[in-house]
Amino acid sequence: MAREKGWKGKESRERLLAAAIDEFANQGFHKTKVSTIVTRAGLTQPAFYLYFSSKEAIFDEVVNDFHERLRMMMKTIRMEPGIETEDVPKRVLFAVETLFRFLAENPNLTRIGLFQTPEAKKIKEELAFMVVENLRAEQQAGYFHPDLSMEIVAECLVGIVERLTVSQLFSKKSNAESLAAQVVHLLMYGMFAHGSVLREKP
Amino acid sequence: MAREKGWKGKESRERLLAAAIDEFANQGFHKTKVSTIVTRAGLTQPAFYLYFSSKEAIFDEVVNDFHERLRMMMKTIRMEPGIETEDVPKRVLFAVETLFRFLAENPNLTRIGLFQTPEAKKIKEELAFMVVENLRAEQQAGYFHPDLSMEIVAECLVGIVERLTVSQLFSKKSNAESLAAQVVHLLMYGMFAHGSVLREKP
Amino acid sequence: MAREKGWKGKESRERLLAAAIDEFANQGFHKTKVSTIVTRAGLTQPAFYLYFSSKEAIFDEVVNDFHERLRMMMKTIRMEPGIETEDVPKRVLFAVETLFRFLAENPNLTRIGLFQTPEAKKIKEELAFMVVENLRAEQQAGYFHPDLSMEIVAECLVGIVERLTVSQLFSKKSNAESLAAQVVHLLMYGMFAHGSVLREKP
Amino acid sequence: MAREKGWKGKESRERLLAAAIDEFANQGFHKTKVSTIVTRAGLTQPAFYLYFSSKEAIFDEVVNDFHERLRMMMKTIRMEPGIETEDVPKRVLFAVETLFRFLAENPNLTRIGLFQTPEAKKIKEELAFMVVENLRAEQQAGYFHPDLSMEIVAECLVGIVERLTVSQLFSKKSNAESLAAQVVHLLMYGMFAHGSVLREKP
DNA sequence: AATGAATGAGGCTTCATTCAT
DNA sequence: CATGAATGAAGCCTCATTCAT
Questions:
Q1: D164-176 burial, b for 16+ CB within 10 Å, e for fewer?
Q2: What share of chain B is helix, strand, coil (3-state, %, to 5)?
Q3: Which pLDDT does position C198 carry in this prediction?
Q4: In this model, does residue C70 exceed pLDDT 70?
Q5: Residues B168, B174: contact at Cβ < 8 Å?
Q6: pLDDT band at residue B193, thresholds of 50, 70 and 90?
Q7: Does the pLDDT of residue A146 top 50, yes or no?
Q8: Do C24 and C62 touch, CB atoms closer than 8 A?
């Protein structure tokens, strides 16, 4: 047998999830009807409750899965303490780019997990907190301006990422690399014309 | 007559609006029930329909009023072309501060008009567009780094404002003035420690 | 004073009635709203209840007034017994024509009083009964075919009048005189071509 | 399985239709409540919307089905051109009788489809039109009086049928056969006593 | 003679969820 | 593993009618 036992059930579950993600992302939780999800999955309503205990349950599962994956990704971009000072911009750039890429690759999940669920609040705080941690060491090393509140900077970065994800990434006006470069440069050097290194970039 | 004719009706309408704004802001459109709104306004359900044609209608009115006021405020912070170069940071600071203050003073309306309604998309685009217009002249005057995309910078500013409004303003962790100063400094000079003017600020 | 006391009230009452008749006739009882009636009469809802105790009351008044007038008219077209045999067709023609004219002149009232209200049943029975009375004597005098049921004939006439009123009179495709002539001829002589007198008519 | 799949649903749908027809016919559209229909069908309100999209939808379905059947019946009573002249009365009699029988057998549907819905206008026009077509050939063959307007005659017949259906058929005062015979005789030969053939009928 | 403001009552419809098979 | 059929709960909205002035 090419397909083991339980395969069909898993298939159905996946189809339900896929349909639900699409609906939630584009219609929001309330406008999404269980009846639509099951129809799109080629099933009937009772079948839905074979796999999920409620409409809220499937929404939560989608959100939690996404947040889990996001947290994992966040671990990979956390800078170890003791990093070489001159490597900081590079590391920051890598982190931002990776984050952008992750969100761009999961637009529907991002819409749900970052813009619809109240849980988004928490994950954004975590994200901001990680950024703060990453930045604080450099600031204490005199690398960053001492009067800047790293908390505020971190929130700014989160806001920038949120906004650009929607306005540039989802609309494909720009890509993760380009965006990350510009954002990092902006945050590092500011808008003023003097002393920039942007010109030296490829 | 202590109060003119039509006063009572306007009062009721206002109470309905106030209740609706509070409910919409804190429960969202779908969880907000007309029955709750009218109860909070000390009325019965049919009275609601004396003043608004539907639940959607009152939501739209709230949103449109807010957007209208936001647009008016945006006009007042638009920089006239031909501004003195050395005044730019001051003007930008004023603009950002005014914007923050406006949002901080209308938290519920902001929640509705900036984070709940799909119409928010449009007004944010308008906001970003206004910022772009404001910045472009300075960039062409060599004031801002030529390789920076003002569109992206504008979107960043919008994202920053969105995020800080929620995380700092609504939670009263910070106020409009302080936030505006930090944001403008960050965007103007970046995070790096060299050549800052922040220290000279009051 | 050109207008005596109470004039204004009567005026309002008339306007309400006029509006109600038009609405009832064209929308039916249920689709007609008190709010529409008063608006068309240039009044407010409570004013309505100054003159009529309910929506049903005004409807009934309209119906009863019309039926009263219809009954009066029916009296005028009732044939006295002992009429000369050769005058019968003339008298029948007169009766039918008068009836058509009455209905044509009151299209809205007819729509209400003959086609909408359940009371129509009664008045139509009365109408049919009058016709029966009118015809029976002639039948007993051998004037009409003895095997024909005058009850049925009377009902036929009522049905014809109903239908032609709607299809010809209201649409102005034909007028009372022409219709009456054709109907009476048809009923008197039938459709067959032999022995008609229609040709001799003007 | 004693009954095939889908049987129960169809049963419920039929019960809903039956209840609806009865309510509509006797209470009219507006006084008929969905809640009554479902109660009579032994179901709850949401079940109604499993089978019909709205109260209006079920009404329309009832009307359309009836009109469809009526149209089919009308086809069967349409006289082919080239019919033998002496057969005309027989054919007309058959047609009228068939029509009466159809209406008598469907009193509730007739009440709805012929007296309640605005759509009745159309079907009556179609009926009149068919009658006109049937009569015109005979008139041109000299069979019917040349000065009679077949349009008017047709409308008369429609009116007669309408009226007798209500006053005789529904009340069971008379039956289709008897009514048809009298109506046809009346229209063919008129009320006058001379030259009738009614006496020769069984 | 009339109005601004409000309400009681009730109907239609939707949706997540479950029962029985 | 899945379905046909059904329901509980609840929300939106309408309309005739009335209160207080």
A1: bbbbbbeeeebeb
A2: 75, 0, 25
A3: 40
A4: yes
A5: yes
A6: low
A7: yes
A8: yes
Q: Which residue's CA shows the smallest distance to C1' of E1?
A: C9
Q: What is the three-class DSSP state of A144?
A: strand
The amino acid at residue D117 is T
Alpha helices in chain C (DSSP H): 7-31, 34-40, 45-51, 55-77, 88-105, 107-115, 120-140, 150-164, 176-189
Tokens representing residue B21 in the block? 């704004």
Q: Which bases of chain E come closer than 7 Å to a protein CB?
A: 1-20
Name residues whose C-beta falls within 8 Å of residue D193's C-beta, 6 or more positions apart in sequence. C142, C143, C144, C145, C146
Tokens 């406008």, residue located: A31
Is residue B173 within 8 Å of A174, Cβ to Cβ?
no
The nucleotide whose C1' lies nearest the CA of A47 is F2
Chains D and A touch (3+ CB pairs under 8 A): no
Distance CA B133, CA B82 (A): 13
| All structural domains of chain D | 1-52 (1.10.10.60), 60-200 (1.10.357.10)
| Distance, CA of A158 to CA of B162 (rounded, Å) | 10
Q: Is D160 on the interface with C (CB under 8 A)?
A: yes
DSSP bridge pairs for B144: A192
CA distance C155 to chain D (A): 7
Q: How far apart are CA C73 and CA C101, in angstroms?
A: 11
Please give the protein residue whose CA is closest to the C1' of the nucleotide E14: D46
DSSP summary character for residue A192: B
Residue listed under structure tokens 């809205």:
C108
Contacts of residue B149, Cβ cutoff 8 Å, sequence gap at least 6 = A182
Q: Is the CB of C6 under 7 A from strand E?
A: yes
A116 vs C61: CA distance, rounded Å: 59
pLDDT band at C191 (very low <50, low <70, confident <90, very high): confident
Q: How far apart are CA C47 and CA C13, in angstroms?
A: 9
Q: Is the pLDDT of residue D201 over 90?
A: no
pLDDT tens by residue, C124-162: 999 999 999 988 888 888 888 888 999 999 999 999 999
Distance of CA A189 to the CA centre of its chain: 25
**Three-state SS for D81?**
coil
pLDDT band at A8; cut points 50, 70, 90: confident
Q: What are phi and psi of A194, to 5 degrees?
A: -80, 140
Nearest to C114 by CA among C103, C101, C128: C103
CA angle A160, A163, A164 (to 5 degrees): 80
